[in-house]
Structures are given as structure tokens and as C-alpha cells.
Amino acid sequence: MKFQEVLGQKSLCAAFPASLKSGHVAHAQLFAGKSGYGSLALALAVAQYLLCSNQGDDDSCGECPACRKVIKGVHPDLHFVYPVVKKKDSAPVSDDYLQQWREIVTSPYFSLDEWIEKMGGEENAQPMIYAAESANIIKKLSLKPFEADCRVVIIWLPERMNEECANKLLKILEEPYPGTYFILVSEQPERLLTTIRSRTQMVIIPMLEKGVIAHELGRRYGLSAERGRWLERIAAGDMVKAIELLNDESNRAKNREMFISLMRLCWTRDMVPVNRWVNELADAGRERQKRFLTYASEMLRENFMRNLNKDEIVYMTPEEEQFSVRFAPYVNENNIVALFAAMEQAAIEIGRNGNAKIILTDLCIKVMQNIRPTT
Ligand SMILES: [Zn+2]
Fold first, then answer.
1. In angstroms, what is the span from residue 99 Cα to ligand 1's centroid?
2. From the CA of 113, how far away is ligand 1's center (Å)?
3. For the chain, how are helix, strand and coil distributed in percent, rounded to 5?
4. Which string of DSSP letters, residue by residue, matches 204-269?
5. Is the pTM of this model over 0.85?
6. From the CA of 66, how far away is ligand 1's center (Å)?
7. pLDDT tens digits for 81-92?
8. At 151, is the pLDDT very low, low, confident or very high (cuts 50, 70, 90)?
9. Ligand 1 centre from 148 Cα, in Å?
10. Whole-angstrom distance, CA of residue 367 vs CA of residue 348
11. According to the model, what pLDDT value does residue 309 have?
12. Which of 98, 115, 182, 301 has the fewest CB within 10 Å, making it most exposed?
């Protein structure tokens, strides 16, 4: 990544090249700031500048073979260390997940959760940097740089090192490894050993400048300036957070469409489109199905409250309100309990890995029976 491709952070991007070129940069740096501020992106830009064989005064060239390798994450003198999830029996090291890392790091604005998902870890997994990692670093550093005059070790989220690894890293930072730059990219530097902090030069990565996120959301997703500014304000200068908020919105919109069509189809009792609806959601995977069922229960609750004229505790978006105007009267004390139970039952069975098509068909029949009883 070139400095000019880093989102915002203009003053840091302007200052780095000159100080890197003049050698006025400590060999161990600690970038402190959220991933969404671009701390990892900056680390990559610094690495690329250092390794570029055709560096300009203010940026790497982005085109030489060295730059291309950095961009793909395959430069032999650029090493990465990052937290990983435990495999069955052995303690893993970063290299076990190198392929996944190379893919995710091409767009270096992501959260730890996204990284866990990329590794195929459980939702509540606690990735760590294990002790075996330090031996791995030492082994790599015992060799001469392969292609460049220097090499760079980027350690993402060093606060997730276990104690043994942290102590070994400390020894590595104390050793002089000529031509070797360490960049520790930390979201919680206060959790690092003070001895590690004292051996590094801290660079505070501030939140993104006003307007940067709104502009990027417009460029990437075609968002209007107004929506972009709204998300930017809620995300407080954090690009990762802004993308999360946006994804939540689009999930919600998808769920809303599915909910509205389920209710309409069940009302008309036309089995062919109902079947199509079932197949669509059955193909979408269990996590999507569970999220939909949670959403549907929420919407039933909101519409029931609306029907009871409890508007002060109704929480709906304008689009949901629009549907609710006509739909709310059909959610009442005669069917709310049965409808809730149907959603809950489906969620339980999906959670038990039951056959999604059978479960969702059963759900549709129950909704039909309750939303417009025949007798
Ligand atoms: Zn280059």
C-alpha cells in the first residue's frame, strides 16, 4: 500500500517518508490506534516504502517487483505476526494462516472479528499470539534479508501475546538485528508489558479526519453524502466501525424484505412462491436464518405494540413503519403467542442443525394458520 492510498492521516503520511529516508526512525515502532483509524494500513505503507527499490521522496513507487510483492503480502523480507485461533491439539503460529492473512490484508481496514471469521474460528474464539511464535521470528531473523537491504516485521495486535511470547519478544527487541524494523500495531498499548513499550517509539494514530469516511463510503458503495456523514458521525472516525454499521443496515434491509414477503405470501396462501421463499432462505446458511428469525420476532413485537397503541415503545425504521401501517392490525392477542412460538421453535431447530427446508416450510404453515385463520 502506498502512503497516498492510506485513508486520511495526511500529516503522518507526509512525515514518514522523509524520516524513514534520513534514518530518523527507531527500529522498533509502536503504532497505537484503532484498526479503523488505519494503523495497519500505515504500517503496510511504511513497510512498502522501506522495501521499495525505486522509492520517491514522498512515496513508494507501487510498481517495482518489491512493491508488488508487498501488495500481495508475499515479500520475503516482510514478516507478519498476528493472533491466531487454536487448532485441535497444537499451538498454532501465524504462518499456519498465511493464506487467509494475505487475502484479508489486501484491504487493511478490518476488525478482529472479521479476522476470526476468515480463519474459520468460532464466534467467541479468543485468538492469541502463542509462545511458539517467538522461536519462529528468531528463526526468520537469523537469516540474511533475501532481496532488500532491510526487512520489516509487522506485529498486529501484540497485546494478544501470551506472557511467555511477550518475554521472548522483549529479548528480540533488545537484540540488535541490523536493518530490521519492527512495527507493533496495537489497539490497546496499555495492555503491553511496560518493558516492551519502553523499547519502542510510540506513534499515536489519531481518528480519521472529518470527511474522510463519508468520502470513502461514497466512493466504495455509492452512498449519498448525507448518509455518509451520518455514518461517519456515529462511527467516530473509525472506518471499520462505519463499515460494520453499514453492513448492519443492509442486513436489516434484507431481513425486512424477507419478513414483508413472508407475511404477504402467508396471507395469500400461495404455496408456489412460499416454496420459493423457503428455498431462498434455506440456501442462505444457518447464521442468516438465525438472524432472520430474531428479526422477525422483533418485528412481530413492534407491530403488536403498535396495534396496542404503545407507540412510545415502538422502535422501527421509516421503511418498517411504512409496512406496519397496514400490517399491525393483523398482529393481535389472538395470534401473537403462536407466532412468537413458531419463530422460536424454528430458531431452536435451526440451531440443532435440523433440515432448514423442512423447518422453514413448517414455519410458513404456522404463520399462515395464525395470520389469517380460515375459521
Ligand atoms: Zn517500489
1. 23
2. 32
3. 60, 10, 30
4. E-PPPPTTHHHHHHHHHH---HHHHHHHHHHHTT-HHHHHHHHHHHHHHHHHHHHHHHHHHHHHHT
5. no
6. 6
7. 999 998 776 779
8. very high
9. 11
10. 17
11. 85
12. 98
Give CATH for domain 251-371: 1.20.120
Compute, in angstroms, the gap from residue 77 CA to the centroid of ligand 1.
Answer: 14
Looking up cell 395470520 gives: 371
For 360-369, write each residue's pLDDT tens digit. 999 999 999 9
d(CA 51, ligand 1 centre) in Å:
7
pLDDT range class, residue 54, cuts 50, 70, 90: very high
Cell representation of residue 324: 406496519
Total H helices, total E strands in the chain: 16, 5
14 Cα–ligand 1 center, Å: 17
Domain boundaries, the chain: 3-206, 251-371
Ligand 1 centroid to residue 107 C-alpha, Å: 19
Q: What's the CATH number of domain 3-206, 3.40.50.1370, 3.40.50.300, 3.90.440.10, 3.40.50.2000?
A: 3.40.50.300
Ligand 1 center to 2 CA (angstroms): 9
Q: 145: pLDDT confidence band, cut at 50, 70 and 90?
A: confident
